[in-house]
């Protein structure tokens, strides 16, 4: 097995002598890194145009209401206002959506969630636009609320989307269910009869926000050809364009998108937010229009993680063999579908975790409701399931009197295992080894809180700088968890990515230009793509073209897919460029050296054509001359297939990734305060293209999972389905004072089906970090803790 890398000993950033690194497997620095840490990086909210207008959105104060009338005259009469638009002013298609076109650009006859857009305004100053929006008079009539499964599926439930005609409608038992996916394998009833231990519990996961720091923003500029140029922070330029063009009534080639600086995403920028509104106002006024949400509006302007209710039953034999799992997962999708169907597919197919279980009866559904719309967030359905199945593994182990890590290892899948969907796991699945590694890491030293003598650093105590305790009732706990996440788009989706590579001579030196539509949202693709180009083309100078829709789609920056897919596209296109270089070299030097007759034994290195033995037989700059090579190619992973809608069987995923965590916490059991002391991780990444970036991804995902475990939740009022905490004052995310030491073990066990053998990295650590932290809190307190985030009142008797 490959040796692991650790966060404490990253690969150096320079070679001996100071020459910059920059090929695959080395920790090349980010080209945007210095600009970001010095505050000089230009984000989409920094966009500016000389004669631009400002756009503002009027949003509904109700979660479910009929719109009886809208009077825009007072707003239009305000000096400085150029346009006010409602649903009646839309020029073409009125709805959009990622998978189901069910979301109105502007609400027409009713609103379905608190904060839904009703009207938009363009004015010459942002304050004027806000004042104008406040002058729009809307008459509402409140309607009954749908807030959970009971109200959604009741016989008299209001139908939120009557007359549905999407591809899922025929396969759900009620129109207010977005999608349903069962997974059935084996005979659960017979297995239950043989079980020595049965554990049944129900779990809940709260609604988490992606909490990116850069709010939704963009600039739409009308063009002379009647089209529009949109500069936008997004995760998928081409799917934005494909939703926008019908709404604007324009052909796709007249809707041009260019990526602007993205201040984080984590799934929330997959859906449209202000894109259509900015473009509509720009085309209506003939002027550039900029829209920037403030933090309050951002909480209403994007989807969130699905809150979930998960009912699980596990059965096992006395020797610790899992016999069966039965579960039902209910995800609240909110007012519109977004990516809920795909989230359901993930939750159902990954519902039992990385374990071998012969008998499975699982079901996942997503509801339409009047709660805030939910969709993609890092982990995408697998996070909710992982919290439940890992809590179950601890509970079953306790019933059997087994060590929780040993119990997991006894049932851990490995290469050659079969998923409950019937899919063969045909690449390394080192689940037991990952658990062994995190358990073997040195424990953080014990701290003698509350004893006489010595100063106490309150920053290290539960409660931190609030200075609420000096450690009198602090107890330590340790917990473990492991998760499984799919990589890439699944269920038969035509998942591809495109890259264009131009190789030419500039100033006597070969230079490569890499052009993709990949959205750089912080994941590090801007580094990875240059590393791949340097590796494959043997050139030192590599430039990145700005991401836009003038090149073919790169797909979404989500599903841990960009290094695999767009990195794969860059590699594939570079290989085509290299073939053309060698073809030209043979035409020029073919009789000069016998090695030209064996192109598979030639490579490009340091601007030269060299043999396997390192002999130089050609100069790249000389071969290219004045004729650049400019090629565009698509890359696809091996095909997947949809899950059967009755049994859930099918090879629905292209790749799986695995991560394990060990959490060490200290809990003040009198006050209910938690301090996460350490959160160690071990993850198989197949191949670390950029080791330092890989460690950063694992630590970042771990921090988001920690947030879900102990603090992050959008609170929605039960009586009005209204968001109660839309601010970073009331919606809490981990800060540097909450983030613990994070040792990381990185395994590199190649997946032979992937470029360089790599695996997607970014999502897997978000799964297992949450249940590991909660398991540690359970160990410290003895409380069952079946809901996240864990709050102080869950840990005390008050």
From TrEMBL:
SUPFAM superfamilies: CO dehydrogenase molybdoprotein N-domain-like, Molybdenum cofactor-binding domain
Domain Aldehyde oxidase/xanthine dehydrogenase a/b hammerhead: 38-144
Pfam families per record: Ald_Xan_dh_C, MoCoBD_1, MoCoBD_2
Annotated region described as Disordered, given as residue ranges: 1-31
SMART domains, sorted: Ald_Xan_dh_C
InterPro entries on file: Ald_Oxase/Xan_DH_a/b, Ald_Oxase/Xan_DH_a/b_sf, Ald_Oxase/xanthine_DH-like, AldOxase/xan_DH_MoCoBD1, AldOxase/xan_DH_MoCoBD2, AldOxase/xan_DH_Mopterin-bd_sf, Xanthine_dehydrogenase_dsu
Protein's UniProt name: Oxidoreductase
């Amino acid at each position: 097995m490959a040796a692991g890398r650790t966060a404490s000993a990253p690969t150096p950033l320079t070679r001996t002598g100071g020459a910059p690194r920059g090929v695959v497997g080395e920790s090349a620095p980010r080209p945007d890194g210095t600009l970001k840490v010095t505050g000089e990086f230009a984000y989409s909210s920094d966009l500016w145009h000389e004669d631009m207008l400002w756009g503002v959105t009027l949003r509904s104060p109700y979660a479910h209401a009929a719109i009886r009338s809208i009077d825009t005259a007072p707003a239009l009469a305000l000096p400085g206002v150029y346009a006010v638009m409602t649903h009646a002013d839309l020029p073409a298609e009125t709805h959009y959506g990622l998978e189901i076109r069910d979301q109105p650009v502007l609400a027409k006859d009713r609103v379905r969630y608190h904060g839904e857009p009703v009207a938009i305004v363009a004015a010459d100053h942002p304050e004027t636009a806000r004042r104008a929006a406040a002058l729009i008079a809307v008459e509402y009539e409140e309607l009954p609320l749908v807030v959970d499964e009971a109200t959604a599926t009741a016989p008299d439930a209001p139908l939120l989307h009557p007359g549905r005609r999407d591809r899922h409608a025929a396969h759900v038992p009620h129109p207010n269910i977005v999608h349903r996916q069962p997974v059935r394998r084996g005979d659960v009833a017979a297995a239950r009869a043989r079980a020595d231990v049965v554990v049944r519990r129900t779990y809940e996961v709260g609604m988490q926000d992606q909490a990116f720091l850069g709010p939704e923003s963009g600039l739409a500029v009308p063009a002379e050809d009647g089209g529009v140029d949109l500069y936008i922070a997004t995760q998928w330029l081409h799917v934005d364009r494909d939703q926008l063009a019908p709404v604007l009534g324009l052909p796709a080639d007249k809707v041009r998108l260019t990526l602007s600086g993205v201040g984080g995403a984590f799934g929330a920028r997959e859906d449209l937010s202000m894109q259509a509104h900015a473009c509509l106002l720009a085309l209506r006024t003939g002027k550039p229009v900029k829209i920037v949400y403030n933090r309050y509006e951002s909480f209403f302007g994007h989807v969130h993680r699905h809150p979930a209710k998960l009912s699980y039953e596990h059965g096992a034999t006395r020797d610790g063999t899992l016999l069966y799992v039965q579960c039902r997962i209910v995800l609240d999708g909110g007012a519109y579908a977004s990516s809920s169907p795909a989230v359901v597919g993930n939750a159902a197919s990954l519902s039992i975790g990385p374990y071998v279980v012969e008998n499975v009866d699982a079901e996942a559904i997503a509801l339409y409701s009047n709660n805030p719309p939910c969709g993609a967030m890092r982990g995408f359905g697998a996070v909710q399931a992982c919290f439940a199945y890992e809590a179950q593994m601890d509970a079953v182990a306790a019933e059997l009197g087994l060590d929780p890590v040993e119990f997991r290892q006894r049932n851990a899948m490995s290469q050659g295992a079969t998923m409950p969907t019937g899919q063969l796991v045909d690449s390394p699945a080192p689940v037991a080894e990952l658990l062994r590694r995190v358990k073997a890491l040195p424990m953080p030293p014990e701290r003698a809180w509350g004893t006489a003598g010595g100063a106490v650093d309150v920053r290290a105590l539960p409660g931190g700088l609030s200075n609420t305790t000096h450690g009198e009732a602090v107890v330590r706990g340790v917990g473990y968890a492991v998760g499984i996440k799919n990589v890439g788009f699944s269920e038969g989706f035509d998942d591809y990515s495109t890259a264009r590579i131009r190789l030419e001579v500039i100033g006597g030196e070969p230079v490569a230009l890499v052009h993709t539509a990949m959205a750089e949202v912080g994941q590090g693709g801007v580094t990875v793509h240059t590393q791949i180009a340097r590796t494959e083309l043997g050139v030192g100078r590599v430039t990145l073209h700005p991401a836009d829709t003038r090149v073919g789609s790169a797909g979404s920056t989500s599903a841990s897919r960009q290094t695999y897919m767009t990195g794969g596209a860059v590699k594939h296109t570079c290989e085509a460029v290299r073939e053309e270089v060698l073809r030209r070299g043979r035409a020029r030097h073919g009789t000069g050296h016998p090695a030209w007759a064996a192109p598979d034994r030639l490579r490009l290195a340091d601007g030269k054509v060299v043999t396997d033995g390192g002999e130089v037989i050609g100069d790249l700059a000389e071969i290219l001359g004045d004729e650049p090579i400019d090629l565009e190619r698509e890359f696809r992973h091996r095909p997947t297939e949809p899950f059967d809608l009755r049994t859930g069987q099918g090879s629905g995923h292209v790749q799986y990734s695995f991560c394990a965590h060990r959490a060490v916490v200290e809990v003040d059991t009198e006050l209910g305060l938690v301090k996460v002391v350490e959160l160690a991780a071990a993850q198989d990444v197949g191949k670390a293209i950029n080791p330092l970036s890989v460690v950063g991804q694992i630590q970042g995902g771990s921090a988001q999972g920690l947030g879900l475990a102990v603090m992050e939740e959008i609170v929605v009022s039960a009586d009005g389905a209204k968001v109660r905490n839309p601010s970073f004052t009331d919606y809490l995310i981990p800060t540097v004072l909450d983030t613990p030491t994070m040792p990381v073990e990185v395994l590199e066990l190649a997946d032979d089906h992937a470029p360089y053998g790599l695996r997607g990295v970014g999502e897997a650590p978000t799964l297992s970090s949450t249940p590991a932290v909660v398991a540690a809190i359970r160990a410290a307190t003895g409380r069952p803790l079946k809901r996240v985030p864990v709050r102080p009142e869950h840990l005390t008797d008050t």
